[in-house]
Amino acid sequence: MLILLIPLIIMTLRLIFKPTVLNLLISFIFLGFLGCEPSSNTQKVSDSGRQWLAGDHHIHSRYSVGWERDSTPPAPIIGGDAIYPIPMNALMAKRYGLSWMVSTDHGGPNHSKVNLEMAYPELLSSRKAVPEVIQFYGMEFDTPGADHSSLIIPHTHDESEHLHDIESQFNKREPFPSDSTWDTEPRMLEALDYMKTLETKPVVIANHPSRSATGFREYGLYDPAEFRNWNDKAPEIAVGMAGAPGHQAATISADSSFRERPRGGYGRFPTMGGFDQMTAKLGGFWDSMLGEGRRWWITANSDSHVHWKEGGSDFWPGEYSKTYVYAEKSHEDILDGIRSGRVFVTLGDLISELYLTAEGGHHSADIGGSMHVERGDDIEITIRFKDPDSTNTWGDNPEVSRVDLIMGEIYGPVTDRDSDTNPTTEVIERFTEADWEVDGDFRVIRYTLAELNTSNYIRIRGTNSEELEPEEDPAGEDPWAELWFYSNPVFIEVDQ
User: Fold this and answer.
1) 423-452 pLDDT per residue, tens
2) Mind listing the pLDDT tens digit for each residue in 98-154?
């Protein structure tokens, strides 16, 4: 294995110039490949059978370039924005317990050529060098009429051509000179129409949805109607948003002290318990989408560009946030799991497994699933979670102090496309240690919904804090001090 890595080591040494980055890479190679035990939160997985696989869908490499604007057209500056090679990102993803990742560089003038001719060949090398991590090809799409989105391309022999076609035709920063007609919401709908024609359809996840918001419910580059339009146009492609954004290490200085900066780069309206307001607000935008019965899922990601120890704002992939997908360890099933909502997210390794099951009327459903029951049926809900007895990468061993069971009605399409509330959503029960059973490494909670008469969805969240609802995160907050996890919903539809 080391012989195979020699070309990678040589390439990396030649192309990275920061000495501390070189030291990190060299140290990790020797630790990871010369017999060092993996970190305590590394998940061991088999090659078959669905299980919870941790990953990250938003990771930048050195092909998120800077631009030399004195040339015509502007010339790409490799490492001008993000600085790490793709194989280094994969190595660190492995180190921090990830089973899958997506390489997502963003664009600029003629960046489609950078992705095709530079980033993609390096991804192919990275797949060979770090086969333990399932690696997807993608990009952070400079979304027409919006902010950024993770674009995940299915793993096929022509995946590079598919991304090149999408980026060269629809990425709003692609043309030179710049062209404002590329930056409109209708153009994004055209892009989704094009993606629907592909035999293997990609997945689009909106990143940092409220980073440009000017206040609570005062949205910026993304708004509720826009997400509804995407989901209506291509429900199997535009499947959700990042519930917890990246750049969560923005408050940490290189010397491990804390600095007065907002988490996630949310400078106008902050994150709430590390989560975007569109997710964190009970009965807010996410619940309004679920109330329509939309399969609109949430994820988490690192948005890694430059590590906080290098003066950046980022954690390594998997170091802080994880998106768990219930899937076999293959490109196909992981992408199907994301598309189908078999996903939960956690910060700070608060939990490592989570099961939410609803049973009633001889039917059952799990996270991301749905079931039909008769009016008046009782629904038995079981929650199982694993709170690992191990330290996270900050050296803490956080413990779940509370789990909230949340329910809201499914009332169908709204008339106001900008709706961002669901007044039926509520926490129907809060559980603490006194309420759960211990079953080996798992904690088990049981609850009965008696005589259900309306269609509802359920979802859960949990925390190590005492906050009943996630509050606004102050600048300079320690991101490790308050941790949350969220499940995607289970839909329970009552037959009329």
Assistant:
1) 999 999 999 999 999 999 999 999 999 999
2) 999 999 999 999 999 999 999 999 999 999 999 999 999 999 999 999 999 999 999
Q: How far apart are CA 163 and CA 26, in angstroms?
A: 32
Handedness of CA 308, 312, 314, 316 (dihedral sign): negative
Question: In 3-state terms, what secondary structure has residue 197?
Answer: coil
pTM: 0.93
Instruction: Please give the Cα distance from 465 to 33 (Å, whole number).
Output: 38
Distance between CA atoms of residues 200 and 310, nearest Å = 39
DSSP labels for 3-48? HHHHHHHHHHHHH---HHHHHHHHHHHHHHHTTPPPPTTPPP--SS
Domains, the chain, in order of start with CATH, read 2-353 (3.20.20.140), 355-495 (2.60.40.10)
Distance CA 230, CA 228 (A): 5
Rounded to the nearest 5 degrees, what angle is found at the Cα of 122, between the Cα atoms of 121 and 123?
90
Q: Which two tokens mark 307? A: 């590590």
